[in-house]
Amino acid sequence: MDYKKVNAPxxxxxxxxxxxxANVGNVYETVKIIGKRSNQISVEIKSELxxxxxxxxxxxxxxxxxxxxxxQIEISRxxxxxxxxTLIATQEFLEDKVYYRNPIKDKLK
Length: 109
Known about the structure:
Elements: H1 17-20, H2 27-54, H3 70-81, H4 85-94, H5 103-108
């Protein structure tokens, strides 16, 4: 997923949790859903970044040789400028792009 194309804000925004949780019906369950999705996004972004930075890894044991690679710096800057995972998850939740279910509620039906 290209997280740069997500319409999530770059800065934290105060939100009315009661209006966000209207679909779920419970504020705490909404926070839990957004939190779990945020963790998933964080893991995806971290694994993607690690995979890209692995190309620049040197396995020499010579500590004195430190190379500054322009491509590596650009990749790091790209990931630093991305929205935070919680903001991306919140935006996905607001756009109804997050699938969630509660097995306990499913049993009660």
